[in-house]
Amino acid sequence: MKTNNLVACPECDALQREVDLVPHGEAVCMRCGAELFRNKPGSLDRTLAFIIAAAIVFVAANTFPLMELEAQGMRRESTLFGTVVALQETGWPLIALLVLVTTLVVPCLQLGLALAVLLPLKLGHVPRALGWLSRALDTVWPWGMVEVFLLGSMVSLVKLTKIATVSTGGALYMLGAYALLISAAVAAFDSRAFWARVDELRA
Predict the structure, then answer these.
(1) Dihedrals φ, ψ of 38, to 5°?
(2) pTM for the model
């Protein structure tokens, strides 16, 4: 059954009326055939579950060491924050700041804002300052680059094995799990279901 809502095609900008879809159904543009939207059952619940799991894993990633290095009888290990401190102490303050922002500050903001938006909806009420929270989340989300840091760490790990005995720490695996969970949360999220839930609670 058709609704009164209109949706614009992301490819050709053609305006079309939304239609009700069966679970996992897909709506396509009548003009160009591009995907307009999908029906993702349980979208908000799955997104929230992935975000909570990502938050737990991220806390663990900041607790365990990233890697352990042994050379000439000396053994050292470093955490994620310890990497930022080491970069600062070795004369790379801008790189240290970049790592701090993209792998610590922004992920914390991503998780905090996402939970502040999704948890109240799950509990049955619209969060205060929903508009501000949504805009802030959209602003900070692209700046999280844990996967880039993870890739750089793996490259460094390979190079360090030529001069020392190196073993991976638990945090490296936790960061990999975090990146996968965040990607899963993004894939599960359905903005239409989100705003429909908001309208339902406000009605």
Answers:
(1) -125, 160
(2) 0.79
CATH code of residue 62? 1.20.140
Q: How is residue 65 annotated by DSSP?
A: -
H/E element holding 83?
helix 80-89
**Which SS3 state, helix, strand or coil, does residue 193 take?**
helix
Do 72 and 15 have their domain in common? no
DSSP string of 148-175? Answer: HHHHHHHHHHHHHTTTSEEEE-HHHHHH
Instruction: Say what percent of the chain tops pLDDT 70.
Output: 84
C-alpha dihedral sign at 153, 159, 162, 163: negative
Write out the residue range of the structural domain in which residue 8 sits: 1-39
Query: Which H or E run contains 82?
Result: helix 80-89
Are residues 115 and 32 part of one domain?
no
**Confidence label for 118 from pLDDT (cuts 50, 70 and 90):** very high
